[in-house]
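Morning. Coffee machine broken again, so started the prediction first thing and wrote up yesterday's gels while waiting. Chain of 114 residues, entered below exactly as on the submission form.
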Amino acid sequence: QVQLVESGGGLVQAGGSLRLSCAASGIRLSFNDMGWYRQAPGAQRDLVAVITPSGRTTYADSMKDRFTISRDNAKNTVYLQMNSLKPEDTAIYYCYTDFGRRYWGQGIQVTVSS
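Came back before lunch.
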């Protein structure tokens, strides 16, 4: 059974940083794209960043200079380093991986206070 578990969220002041982690079980992530989406209240779920097995990354325009996605295949984990956080970054953040179908984590709350 594939399971993705996010951690590292919480409350931070504007300008601060957080690092999200997404640990996978039931699947080896070495050969899969992995990424993060986020969903603010009343909004759709939007792509944040993607990382391919070779390490190529893609970011949403509003986050490319502040967020960094990385992966540790040995730990079966993907990370999202978020710097210079803004109140508009407040959302539930979801990690995912594609392996025949898309698997999602349960989501983790990130709240940025002004």
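The mean pLDDT is 95. Going to sketch it on the whiteboard this afternoon.
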